[in-house]
Specification:
With about 170 residues, this protein is α/β, with parallel strands linked by helices. The chain has a single domain, classed as Dihydrofolate Reductase, subunit A (3-Layer(aba) Sandwich), CATH 3.40.430.10. About 20% of the residues lie in helices and about 30% in strands. It contains 4 helices and 10 strands, in the order ββαβαββαβαββββ. The strands form 2 sheets. The chain has an 8-stranded mixed beta sheet with strand order 5-4-3-6-1-7-10-9. A two-stranded antiparallel sheet has the order 2-8. It is globular.
Length: about 170
Amino acid sequence: MRKIVLFIATSLDGFIAGKNGDTSWLYSDGDYGYKAFYETIDTTLMGFNTYHYIRQFPFPYPDKKNYVFTQKERLSDDNPVEFVRGDVAQFTQKLKQTEGKNIWLLGGGKINSILLTAGLIDQMVLSIHPIVLGEGLKLFQDHSMMNKHFRLVNHEIFDKGLVQLTYQTQ
Ligand SMILES: NC(=O)c1ccc[n+]([C@@H]2O[C@H](COP(=O)([O-])OP(=O)(O)OC[C@H]3O[C@@H](n4cnc5c(N)ncnc54)[C@H](OP(=O)(O)O)[C@@H]3O)[C@@H](O)[C@H]2O)c1
């Protein structure tokens, strides 16, 4: 079965974006394993807020199948994305059973929580930046998964102090 992999950057205190959605703290000076990871997936999943952030730039994943979760009636737009309404977990469960490469869960915090709670995230690759933001958007917006433990399967330390941790969730 295809794996759902949450590949995402966080601050030391577990935020994926700072106050007012600030992402200026994210390192953009290197690859940090991105290209190799990108080759392992053929599909992305994201919540509408993440898509809303991404769409201000030239669309970065034109060669992938991209699904955007929304609860509103939204028409398709210029980018190669498909809007998905309805049950996030049910859709993802079905998608996992189809043929293909792994699936990148981009985020954000709301969709991450839904899929973690549903037990549908297979792996998490967290690029932890050496910065404390103090406030912002959490990696998981909802607390229902508190006290769940994960298995560390890989770690990498980069010169600038960024640490990349890979966890198996099952
Ligand atoms: N650091 C990183 O690597 C990284 C990665 C990804 C994202 N981010 C940041 O994360 C932020 C977005 O995260 P977020 O937590 O605000 O939002 P999100 O998880 O990206 O999207 C939430 C949206 O998904 C839609 N949705 C569909 N089904 C839903 C359901 N059952 N329950 C709740 N929402 C549902 C809703 O959109 P509708 O209003 O359309 O219904 C909801 O507002 C952005 O600022 C982005 O920059 C950072």
